[in-house]
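User: Look at the shape:
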Amino acid sequence: MSRYAALTAELLKHDESFVTFSFDELDAIVGGLPQSAHAWGAWWTNSIRSRPHSRFWLDAGRRVSADLFKKVAVFALDASIEAEEIAEALVDGVTPEALTEYVSNSLSLERDLEDQIVNHLDVLEPGLTLISRQETIEVGRLDLLAKDREGRVVIIELKAGEAKDAAIGQIARYIGWYAHRDGKTPRAMLVAGAFSEQLRYSAKAIPGLRLVTYRVQFKFEDAAI
């Protein structure tokens, strides 16, 4: 058994939105990180194919972002929180408390959005039927997997607020993985609060990718006294 299995076990003990370990703490958990983990950011890549050891945090349902200068690693719960965003927060000096609130709010909104879509798939597209939600594959975790009325697989990725450029790469990985496995290219939808002009240009490079904007509506009721 790999010594990194101890990291999977440790992460599964936590239900926080994110867990932060210093490199010293990780050394103690896994019996010593390799020198490459201290020197190269690529060691922390969230890809089983290029970095087999990443399986041991991906299997715990987390993605990691490491700060080599501060010697800390943040393991974020759920692939819907981009590792790049966490890394930016660390670099910008955001406090752990503020980062906790950011991650928690983002996850909450995306889960609410996911629930709404699951309950109203026909509103997103008539004829859609749900296959699975939060399904983990070799290249990440899909928010929703569905089939259209013609039986074609549809990947649905959700983002709270404005979608980041990294979402296009994420969608492309999922499409490529299913195309390789099934021999058929699936459709894909990216649902977000907004899309930048740059992202819209990137989306044109993926045939059949549909960008969908959601709108949040408020309902006001008298509170019980």
